Amino acid sequence: MPTTDVTYSAQPSPPIDVSTPAVVVDVDVLERNITRTAQTFRERGVELRPHAKTHKVVEIAQRQLAAGAVGLTVATISEAEVFADAGVEDVFIAYPLWLDARNAARLRTLAGHCTVRIGVDSTAALDRIASELHGSGIRVSLELDAGHHRSGVLPAEAPGIFAHARRTGVALDGVFTFPGHSYAPGRPAAVAEQEAEVLGETTAMLREAGFMVSHVSGGSTPTAVTGVDSPATEIRPGVYVFFDAQQLELGSCTIEDVALHVVATVVSRHDRAGSDERRIVVNAGSKVLGSDRPAWATGFGRLPQHPRARVTALSEHHGTIVFPDDEPLPQLGAQLRLIPNHVCLTMNLVDRIQVVQDDQVIGSWEIAARGCND
Amino acid sequence: MPTTDVTYSAQPSPPIDVSTPAVVVDVDVLERNITRTAQTFRERGVELRPHAKTHKVVEIAQRQLAAGAVGLTVATISEAEVFADAGVEDVFIAYPLWLDARNAARLRTLAGHCTVRIGVDSTAALDRIASELHGSGIRVSLELDAGHHRSGVLPAEAPGIFAHARRTGVALDGVFTFPGHSYAPGRPAAVAEQEAEVLGETTAMLREAGFMVSHVSGGSTPTAVTGVDSPATEIRPGVYVFFDAQQLELGSCTIEDVALHVVATVVSRHDRAGSDERRIVVNAGSKVLGSDRPAWATGFGRLPQHPRARVTALSEHHGTIVFPDDEPLPQLGAQLRLIPNHVCLTMNLVDRIQVVQDDQVIGSWEIAARGCND
């Protein structure tokens, strides 16, 4: 399957004064992405609740909220705890949590500090919520499977689960989807339509059966940028703050929209003309780029200054980059910028990001929720 | 390509009292792996220098050294700094470092605290070493490409590089290989032979040309366990302390040798008999298991209690596990143990591991060198 053609800037990147490998964020590009996305959804009348698992950074969450986001989406209780500690007042844990005594106690504490909504996708999990979170004020949304076939129930199962919630006293008043199957070239628009249909059909069915559905939440970055009409009242894209090589190859963004790079140094160089071994090795591997690589991707990331180069292999601390025969190999010791395939993984691999403006480091931000898996 | 048959223990695993997802290490299995490997190489007269990038834990390094390891292998200067701070006296940074003023200063400081050896694979990098590390006492080994085609030079290039080192006064007195292409079913023995040949041929050629070669270092876990004869004076396996699903499917270990598991909870369950959707979702995804998946692997990890189950997909916080039609799906809320595909990535994703003995948590260890990429 052909990936979208990518137009590259011809401008060279001056070296950035960092110890490599380093994760650097261009604050002007970041701010532009935040502002533009906020404006797009304000104009459409859809509430924006960005997924903070992408960045895990308090300073970025604050910029999203300042630009008009209604709150944050997170994936885990510990992510919610980090952002609530930093003063965020409204979080949706868009995940079908299974409550035991330990994490239920944490959720009740969390709900004392901010508005909390959680996900559910079974009557068994609803029963746990009924017994553990009674009186906590935590609201609940049902996850729907819009075709991704991960968690979530089919639309036909929704009325039964809402009925069970009514019987057990759980504040189930919303539905949400994650259309992860939009991550393939040519798919985003069709998947956005499928998601809109599932949300619309389910909401209508539930309302017809007498249930209140006040929270209709959807979205991913690839579907969000399609502009497909949706009955969603809220959208939860995450990657749009930085974008990454997957989004570039899916056509969700241009090269100028990419706000985050991994800066690396050429440590090994093998220029054997005419062989398949015209390669360099940089000191950025899977422990900083992350090793996600969908089958349709051209490699393990992209090089903005070398569009025809391919990151063919990653070890933990080695990135192998193959060049076409007619392109000179970068020199040993040269600094290169790489766009990771999946930026959410990159952000989870380092403790801090370097903040740059006009290629100068102006500060650094802590990745406060790094490693918050539980 | 068929993967090696895996024999599984039929014994059920009792739940471990941890917040999931958690990384747990069985200290008895760990100790057995450390002791057995140390004994194997002692008997062969080969020095063992375990690669600490696998575990990044001071307490595990101390056990390896107590069992007779001559020092540690690491991949980065920052890993070396962590272990030197903890009292480790001898480290080999088995990596073709490119020295700038910043990391050269760190290396000189490091060499004030412990014995340091570094890797090189070009005359350009040798020139940097000559100018930056003169008088530091740091010794250098040349990386050879034994067929993995990542970093490292071909044997025929070695004499020229040794001659350049002699001219520039660099203490180049060793060679090393990393036979990463052994990571495929049926390959380890053949690759171990190829590595032995490259090390032997190069060492002979260098000695014939009058160069001293006192350090001949090879190895990876899959090749190390083959027992193939090698001229290596030193071996650098890493994963053998824990093993993982890759090693299990390569036949490097049995299920009883696996010391590390990711403990997860079933959060979503879809039991649609007769469809291809008999699946569960656990709360362990790529942010704890890591997303390495070689083409020959059966999935993104293995379940010791469910050998026919397949981890078909990972999102950041979701692991999708498909079961065969005739096997009951685990219940919602059940605790499952997963063996990650590549344990080095898992260790880099959490701050601490839970130490268990007889399925009871007896403590936890800090992953002191987590995130040490530079």
From TrEMBL, chains A, B:
Q: Please tell me whether the keyword Lyase is annotated for this protein.
A: yes
Keyword Lyase listed:
yes
| One of the GO biological process terms | D-serine catabolic process
Q: Which GO terms describe its molecular function?
A: D-serine ammonia-lyase activity
The highest taxon in the source lineage is: Bacteria
- Which UniProt key words apply to this protein? Lyase
Domain named D-serine dehydratase-like: residues: 259-357
Q: Which PANTHER family match?
A: D-SERINE DEHYDRATASE, ZGC:162816-RELATED
The record's similarity note reads:
Belongs to the DSD1 family.
Protein known as: D-TA family PLP-dependent enzyme
Question: What organism is listed for this UniProt entry?
Answer: Kocuria coralli
